[in-house]
Amino acid sequence: MAASTLLKFVWLEVTGLCNEFCDHCYADSSPQGTHGAMGPADWTAVIDQLAGMGTVDVQFIGGEPTLHPHLSDLIEHAHGAGLGVEVFSNMTFIREPLWDTLKRCGAKLATSYYSDDAREHDEVTHLRGAHRKTRANVEKALSLGIPLRGGVVAVREGQRVNEAAQDLSSLGVREIGGDRMRAFGRASRGAAPTIGDLCGHCAHEKCAIGPDGDVWPCVLGRFLHIGNVRERPLSEIWGGPRMSEILADIRAAHGDGVQSCTPPQFLPMCGPCGPCVPSVQHCDPREAGVAAERTTIPTPA
């Protein structure tokens, strides 16, 4: 049954608005995006439902979640409900009150970082000054004692991904993962997404909720509509027949053993990663026997 596993982790995509316009954005976020149909009361109701379902952690994402006018309130509410909180941000737009909220609530931060070279990073994000702002706010987060991890996504040939990881490490970031560009959203170049393009971990103890209330098996699997939290309680959606259908389709595409090795709950997107984040090493069972030296982004000392 679909409800036989606990819903441990949920991505809360509170907005489709972003101040960057990355070519590879799986969510197709942009400066033209909106906060969607979900208002603050809708999100707090979802958070309360998650707490009642025994969910452990949530990650606020976007778009750029720091552009949502009620993000601090939502973080406070999730923290008060006993949920662990992480915010996945491009770290270019963090105002002082949000820093206070993050620190007070024990929230974590995560960010994408594309190069140690400012021009290359800014070319990926299509936002002038993005590298400078992100780097400065990484330093500020660490100085405030806010846990932060970085992800380096390879999106173009010759990109300085190793140097990007080394730069983050030099700033004091200890958890640095890597991934390749995924063929979803703008990165698909118009190709229709398929279940075979996913890793197979989707819907396993996790799901995502979008700005309009749509529930997906993960942030990349938004083409697989499970339900909408503005129409039905999340517990009914999680345990409903549509979830069972999607789980069956995922198993058919990837095999029964694909969920035997689960990535960390805080990955911005499910693996298999190339390379995997250091704490996982191999999140795809089919790659479990591959030697560790295939990793191309160094693990910080």
Give structural notes.
This protein is α/β, with parallel strands linked by helices and 301 residues long. The protein has one domain (9-254): Aldolase class I (TIM Barrel). It contains eight helices and nine strands. It has a nine-stranded mixed sheet with strand order 6-5-4-3-2-1-7-8-9, with helices on one face. Strand 1 (9-13), helix 1 and strand 2 form a beta-alpha-beta unit. The longest helix is centred in the middle third of the chain and has 14 residues, at 130-143. It is globular, with a radius of gyration of 18 Å. The termini are far apart. The model is unreliable at 261-301 (pLDDT under 50).
Mean pLDDT: 83
CATH H-level name... which superfamily? Aldolase class I
Task: State which percent range the strand residues make up.
Answer: 5-15%
What is the CATH class name? Alpha Beta
Shape: globular
**In angstroms, what is the radius of gyration?**
18 Å
Share of helical residues? 25-40%
| pLDDT < 50 runs, ≥5 residues | 261-301
What is the total number of structural domains? 1
Strand order of the largest sheet: 6-5-4-3-2-1-7-8-9
Helix and strand string, N-terminal first? Answer: EHEHEHEHHEHEEEEHH
Q: Report the end-to-end length measured between terminal Cα atoms.
A: 43 Å
Report the total helices: 8
Instruction: Report the count of strand segments.
Output: 9
Question: CATH topology, anyone?
Answer: TIM Barrel
| Oligomeric nature of the chains | single chain
Task: Tell me what the CATH architecture is.
Answer: Alpha-Beta Barrel
Question: Which structural class is indicated by helix and strand composition?
Answer: alpha/beta
